[in-house]
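New to this. Comment on this protein:
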Amino acid sequence: MRIRLDPWPIDTFEGQLTLKPFAGLVFDVETDAWRAIPTKGIPQALREVLVVDGKPRMEARLLLDDAAGELHLAAFGAYVVGAVSLCPHGTRQAELRGVRARRVLAYSADAPLEPARLSPRNPHTGVLEYEPHAFDGRQVEGPRAKVQRLMLDDEQALSQEFASAMPLEEGDADALPDTLVLQDGPVRLGRGGSAVVGYVKTLHTDYLGADRIGLLSELKCGERTPILRFRVGDRGGQVSEAEGREQRFTWYVRLCDAPFYQHPLAGIMRLEMHAPEDSAFVPRAVQGVADLSGALLQKLGSKLHKDARAPQNLIPTAALEHAMSRSMGNLDLVTRRIRTHLVQQGVVA
């Protein structure tokens, strides 16, 4: 028995690798030859790359009791989304774009709340305004899930705002986008037709199967697998109503060699893009993005001595996370403002 190390730090929510088999169908669309495909480098036509990410935060949990004595859940929360714009050819410095913080008062749908405006003692420190958003049910994770959902929606809107249009029809010319967006996590439901690539840092779902996954260990730096297609929500004969209509292209890229003490899939990242419904072909623009992805991600991958989640936690993402944390403010000070507000409103006995 050989023992290998999962490279991600133990204090993260889960490891980098679990590989639960995908229950649905996965189709070959680029080639029937299951082999490594080398990167073709970054073409001059690609002028801008933006890395989009978001960061949620829960700031205070609330319990509300109504006139009938029933308890309801609510919470003060915040999230921020933003992007880092960079030149893939290194001709200019990277810059922050669209960093936007929002504060949310998430509450159970049967306990309506008004917006909360938290005024400071010192007028120079600014007002905290929490916009109410309802969630269904009374689950303890309801407020957190609502903040997360709002953040993902804003991430998608920001990605769509920046990304070039993406021709996805079979007869479209080879039109590589001039602006490409890398979005942390899978691409969101809906809003296809834009040059948005979801990059998935963890390998929790196995889309390849035992007869194909071995290629991932053999990939050299910058190489990728052929492009595959699958349907989101496919459970092997049962497709969820909300997700089953969505198609995805996906492929794997190696960012760097795995150290000898880590599992052989360390350094691998999965990418995905929207696909036309039941397409048996790969649009030329999508193939062009896949061909440059290895060279691009090698440049953006972080180093282990600087980031414990290297190389999948991209260098621009780490810089963006610091900016997003600053935009939400110090959590201890915010929590103090919330306590003061509740006392002033006379809602604390």
